[in-house]
Amino acid sequence: MQQSTDDHFLGGVREFQQHTAPGLRPELARLAQEGQSPSQLFITCADSRLLPNVITGTGPGELFTVRNIGNLVALPDAPGRDDSVAAAVEYAVEILGVRTITVCGHSGCGAMQSLLRGAHRRAGRAGTPLTRWLRHGQDSLQRVRHSPVRLRGAAPSADPLERLCLTNVAQQVDNLTAHPSVRRGVEAGTLRLAGLYFDFATAQAYLLAGDGRTFSPVRPRLESAA
Ligand SMILES: [Zn+2]
Known about the structure:
The protein has 226 residues and is an alpha/beta fold. The chain is 45% helix and 17% strand. It folds into two domains: 1-35; 36-216, 3-Layer(aba) Sandwich (Beta-carbonic Anhydrase, Chain A), CATH 3.40.1050.10. The chain binds zinc ion. Zinc ion binds next to α4.
């Protein structure tokens, strides 16, 4: 058992060196030599419960990942625009040549809760980096009022937070298309956009339909073939 937070952190690294690194070394050595060529850009929330590689069954070199508060994709012309996500999108599309961009949201998102409480409205002179960042989620708040995204075959969730978490994914997928490199890729048929939602309580992933209005559960392969 570790004695302190620092010991706990280093204990994990030591554990990795001892048990995991030997198995990963050949693949990482290959990637170190050849460079990365991931096929997917994965944009998701910074929430500690969300494990991108685990829920997508991917390993080193497969997922180019951007994480931020609320899995937000700021519009290129948004006030106080954000170049971080835009730069990652441009790099992934133009340099790495990814074929898919996935926006992945999740249940119980703290950023969505803050939006519901109006934190973004305190983004003026008394604003903080967090409240200013949350302004990039305002479009999701608008959208959830007139066309909330729901689970397929179900009424919109009675829970305002769940409605917003789901709807935010669809909005951020739409926001991607405002980025020139994405628009070009989608129009050329070389780039596909996807929305994913992960529910922690049931460890279930849901995929956004092409019309951006509903999510369906992703079934295990055997079950979906039946
Ligand atoms: Zn979140």
